[in-house]
Amino acid sequence: MMNTLSIRDLCCLFCCPPFPSRIAAKLAFLPPEPTYSLHASDIVTPSNGTIGQKESSLLTKKAPSDSNTSIRYTIIFSEKAEWQHSQSDISKLEPYFVTTSRHNRIACLYIKCTSTPKYYILFSHGNAVDLGQMASFFIVLGTRLQCNIFSYDYSGYGASQGKPSERNMYADIEATYNSIKQRYHIPESKIILYGQSIGTVPTIDLASRHSECCIACILHSPLTSGMRVAFPDTKRTWCCDAFPSIDKIHRIRSIVLIIHGTEDDVIDVSHGFALYNRVHMQHQIEPLWVDGAGHNDIEAHGQYVERLLRLINVDIPQIHLKNQQTEHQQLSTSPSTPPTLASTLIIPASTTNGTN
After folding, report:
1. What is the pTM of this model?
2. Taking the CA atoms of the chain, what radius of gyration do you get in angstroms?
3. Which sequence positions are flagged as catalytic?
4. Cα–Cα dist 254/115, whole Å
5. What is the DSSP letter of 341?
6. Which residues have C-beta within 8 Å of that of residue 186, sequence separation ≥ 6?
7. Contact by Cβ (8 Å): 220, 264
8. pLDDT for 221-232, tens place per residue?
9. The domain 91-325: what is its CATH number?
10. Rounded to whole angstroms, what are the CA distances from 2 to 232, 242, 271, 312?
């Protein structure tokens, strides 16, 4: 059992000293060979207008500052991207770059599935894929949910600079999130954070540090921590652990939807159970335990889209209603009478869907 290992054993196992970044590199990051590239089609500046294509290519090589120059990019897919849509669908894809606080220039993609989106989903994808492999899925998902989607490649993935690391992941999602608000002026009340597999790590970190950054948080096949994945008997967070989401999730102050397959052989469903139990009770909503689903096939089950639609069309509106009722009760409370606790609408939470 993990709890019987000595510190010396841990150091030997993870190549002394056991830095979390080294564990993360060993256990998590498998960036694929890039399946796309981004090409600057034109450059627009406030003073000079459109710059010619030749100068555009030169500026692209010099990696201009994101804040000083507005650059339009075109995404070019390789055969490995498995692009499944028509050429006209490329017009729905708006790629761009942002620079993170750790000075990595990372690729972002805005998928415009509808002209009247209900919400905007910031999607942090799983391991061993990049934006080129996910683009087709984003169009299908966003169209079905009537939401537009933002996504990004972690440092060292796809067209993003740098090396994959835990700290870079946190900086990557922060920079992308800031671009959604500053570049597209989208309010927090219209943003849904979505993390899949390792993508739940930066998702939980961002939501736990910024209490009002989103209206909802979706965790798809989440992990509690790196050590708990590698050693299922681990009962505590070690100093050398990576991705300690189990110690952050209780600080999230938006509703949290957890989706996990009961037959997941990569990240056991027990991780989903453990994280669900650590979500603040007021922010728990009914999770989805997909009976018989593994790690990479949840999307093929009908309950998946049904649950996401219920989140958008039922759960989130109920939260708005609850907030309005609370505000109304606070305003109607007489100053001369003792304040009463506003009734709290808690959506029934169940862990019996599929497995117990």
Report:
1. 0.81
2. 22
3. 197, 264, 295
4. 26
5. P
6. 120, 180
7. no
8. 999 998 888 888
9. 3.40.50.1820
10. 8, 15, 16, 40
